[in-house]
Each structure stands twice: as C-alpha cells, then as structure tokens.
Amino acid sequence: MRKIVFIADFFKKQVKGGAEICDDVLIEILKNKGYKVATFNSKDFGIKHFDLYLKSGFNFIISNFMLLSEQVKRRLEAVGHRYIIIEHDHKYIINKNPAEFKNFLAPKEKLMNVSFYKAAKKVLCQSDKHKEVLVKNLNLNNAESLGMSLWSDDQLKILRSANISKNTKAFVMKDPNPIKGYHKAEDYCIQNKLDYDLVDKVPYEQFINKLAQYEKFVFFPTSLESFCRVVLEARMLGCKLLTNSLNGCTHEEWFKKYKGNELINFVEATREQVVTTVLSSLFDNEELKDGDITVILNCYRRPYNLKMQIEAIREQSIKPVQIWLWVNHHEDNKDFDFSDLDVDRVFENNFNWKFYGRFAAALLADTEFVAMYDDDTIPGSKWHENCLQTMKTHEGILGSAGVILKGSRYVQHDRCGWPTKNEQITPVDLVGHSWFFKREWLRYLWQEKPVTWDNGEDIQFGFMAKIHGGIQTYCPPHPANDKSMHGSILGNELGIDDKATSTNKAVSHQQFFFERDECVQEGLKKGWQTVRGIKL
C-alpha cells in the first residue's frame, strides 16, 4: 500500500477556505483509491514525526505550510524526491501578494521559502497563470499546473440541483479577508448603479443556493487568486461575471468554452486528471527512486569504455545510489588511472576472477536492486526505469540480451533483447550483457559450487534462481523505435572484437562453448524448467 502524509496549516473541519475544501476532496479521493493517508496540521508536525514516517515509507504532500517549522522544511529538502507541494497561493512572497509588484515580479528581498520550493519533486500550481507567476519569481523547473480545482460528488450535486431562476441583482460576497476585495466590489456596484446584495459567508449548500438566484456576481480581488473556486461556481450557476484579471481560472483556455451544466460536467470529467497528476507527481517512479540501485561495472581488457559507460549510467532517468567498479587483473588495464573515474568504489584485484568476481562484490551492496554491466555494454537512458517498470508485473532476473534454449546444448538457442528488439516482456532462460536483479537473490547463485569458475555465471544464476527460488528470468521490452529503453545500445560496435572472451585466442572457441554446454546440462540435471521445457 502506498502511504502519504498530508500536511496543511488547517483542514476543512477547522477552516472552510478554498484551499481547505480542495484538500478535503483530494484526501477523500486518495483514501477511496486505497491510499493510506495520515493528516497533520503544520504546527504539530515535528522532526520526530518526519523521521518516523520517512522510515516507514511514507511520501509527503505539503499544502499550506506557513506554520511548518524551518527544521522540518530543511529535513524535507534533503529528501526532495519524497515530497510535493500543492501551492494554493503565494507563500514564496513575504506578503503573499504578487499583484503589488509590476508584472507580478517581486524583488528578490521579498522572496521566501525559495529552497523549499526548489527542492520539491513537484510544485503543483492551481492554474496556468498561477504557475507562470510562480516560475517567473522563483525560476523553477519543477512546477506544473493542475489547471482545475476539485469538487466532490456532493458539491457537484448541490450545484446541479440549485434553482437558477434569476433576479436582477448583483451578488457581492462579504468576505472579511481583505484580499477578497469586497469593498472594491461594493464600490463598483455603486459607481455603476447596480442593485446589489452584500451576502455574508454561510454554509456551502446555503451559499450556492443563494448565489444561484443572482443575475450577476461581482468580485474584485486585490491579490492574484491562484484559481478562485467561487468564480467558477458563479459561472456554473449561470451568473454574469463582473471581475478583474486577478483570477487564475479565467486565464484557462477552457474557461470561455463552458458555462452552466456543461461547465459542471467538464469539472467532473477533469477531476480524475487532476488526481492522476498529483499521484504521478508524488509516486511516478517512486519504487524506482534514486537510492534503490547499486551499479557494478566490470573492467578487464576494455578500460577505454568505462567513461562512456559511467556517463550513460549517470544520465539514467532513474539514477543509482552508487557506481562500483570491479577490476580483474590484465595487462590491458594495469596502467589505467581508475582514480580519474566518476565512481564510488573500486575493487582493484591482482588476479583475474573472471565472471564471478563482480557477483561477489554485489553481496556487499546495501540497496534493494543491483544493476550489473559487461564492459562492452552501454545502456539507454531509460534502462533502469524500464527494468523497474518490468519488475512491477514480471518480477525476476532481467537483462538486455536473453537466451531461450532450444536444446541441451547452449549453442542451440534463440536470442532476445537488444539483438532482436522484442516489443513485449519476454520470458527467457538466462540473460547476459547486463543484469538487473534483487540483491537478495544472489544467495541462489552462491548456493552451490558451479561446474566451472571460468564460464557460465549467467547460466548458473538463471537455473539456480529458478530451481531454488522459483524466480523467472525476463527480457524487458526493447522497442525498435526507442533505444533509450535498451539495455545495450552499442552491442555490435563494442562487443565484437578480439577482446571478447568468446573469441579469445587463449581459450579456444570450441572450449568456450563446450564449457557452456556443460553448465546448461548441469542445470537440466538439477531439474531446471526451461521456457521450452527441455529435458536431457
């Protein structure tokens, strides 16, 4: 179950403002979708709560946060991928009113909470205009517009059932909040000789039924309204709007297209899109977040590929927490300066541990996943993301070059992955070139001594995990038109040379494949259930 801590200065049961009403609808929808939601008033959420909920796997939605402590803000900033901000007004400006400044651009000395906005995974604004002004002031690249507020089914029912028989009067909302500008609305009515009523704030259903009776709605806010629910409600009820340009909703391209019941239907139809945006902002790639993966590279005779490999891994859409390098001794790498590489650990050996050594290093990883690469393998930028998405539906050992055995000899096989561009997730018997797996599965590789330490680690891992753990091996999709998802994008260019083990003059081609045949047959003897059900 995905878990959320929802933090706000106030909730609907405490204050019935637009932000609180919108938040209340969102929280109820999230709960109905099966999310576990813990709510906290900002002033009550301390460091001890943060530590507890972070450790328990919760992510954080931050709504209005003027009462949130600076200490908690700093802790949240340190784990920016774990929180989003749903911005309801302008808490990045000291007076919260960009309308006081030319072109809505506040002087830098008037800005606040800048680092808190910048560190967030997403800052969700209420409208395009709201986003435009926020980005202009903070120069953010993580802002997105929701483009709509939220109404519950009950609220929409009230709007649909309201009697819209009109009088000839104008409705002026008597809101004590000065930024709502009811004095300006009154002045407008007086100057234009409009017959108007000044209406006090009342419970929602009573307010809607009252507003529905009026021909006109007069509203002149003095601050930029991030969206302004009441303006949209007036339009849903068929009221003529007399207002200024400080309402975010009026800048939306759909605003003039809809009114009355047509607008109510549009608001209802857009609700799921808004919730999806919130959830994808908070959880998109959440299981895939930075810190879940340790990458292990292998260096033997191709040290010149390492910088290109490391650059490709650093540019992954889902980045690893660390990159380790396992170096097997060879004359071709003995003078290479490994300290010049952008890696976190180097295992520099005075012996050639061949294929299994790097898997021994993987036992030291402290992440859920391990991604391992041959020295001729450059992944596309979405390879980690592709693997983690595949894990959601097909949990298993994943790789970029799959083998589906056709007989008891290794040479009898079909290939999958980057060599064939499989469009769908494909079950295979073993994978190579790159591996992606849960660290805990390494125990199966080491559970029994292999036939040989010189060959066949990919085969051994495939059949041992299948026999002892019931773990299948798969090739994630390698679409022909999107190499960013491939586990190897230069396999032919980098892998077919005289330094490949399969073509190594020190080990005959015949010996290499004889050893692999022995590994396959050992697995079959132990009861390996292959994709094609091969028997000895």
Mean of pLDDT: 92
Number of strands: 19
Portion of residues in beta strands equals 15-25%
- Major β-sheet profile: 9 strands, mixed
Return the structural class: alpha/beta
Structural domain tally: 3
Report the principal-axis shape. Answer: elongated
Overall helicity: 25-40%
CATH topology name of the largest domain, in short, is: Spore Coat Polysaccharide Biosynthesis Protein SpsA, Chain A
Identify low-pLDDT runs: 285-290
- CATH top level of the largest domain is Alpha Beta
Rg estimate, integer Å: 31 Å
Query: What separation lies between the terminal Cα atoms?
Result: 44 Å
CATH architecture annotation name of the largest domain = Alpha-Beta Complex
> What is the number of helices?
17
CATH homologous superfamily caption of the largest domain = Spore Coat Polysaccharide Biosynthesis Protein SpsA, Chain A
Quick overview:
The protein is α/β, with parallel strands linked by helices and 536 residues long.
List keywords for this structure.
32% helix, alpha/beta, 17 helices, 9-stranded mixed beta sheet, elongated, 3 domains, 6-stranded parallel beta sheet, Rossmann fold, Spore Coat Polysaccharide Biosynthesis Protein SpsA, Chain A, single chain, 536 residues
Fold and architecture overview:
It is built from 17 helices and 19 strands. α15 runs parallel beside α17. The protein has three domains: 143 residues, Glycogen Phosphorylase B (Rossmann fold, 3-Layer(aba) Sandwich); 117 residues, Rossmann fold (3-Layer(aba) Sandwich), CATH 3.40.50; 233 residues, Spore Coat Polysaccharide Biosynthesis Protein SpsA, Chain A, CATH 3.90.550. It is elongated. 42% of the residues are buried. The strands form three sheets. Strands 11, 12, 13, 14, 15, 16, 17, 18 and 19 form a nine-stranded mixed beta sheet that branches. The chain is α/β, with parallel strands linked by helices and 536 residues long.
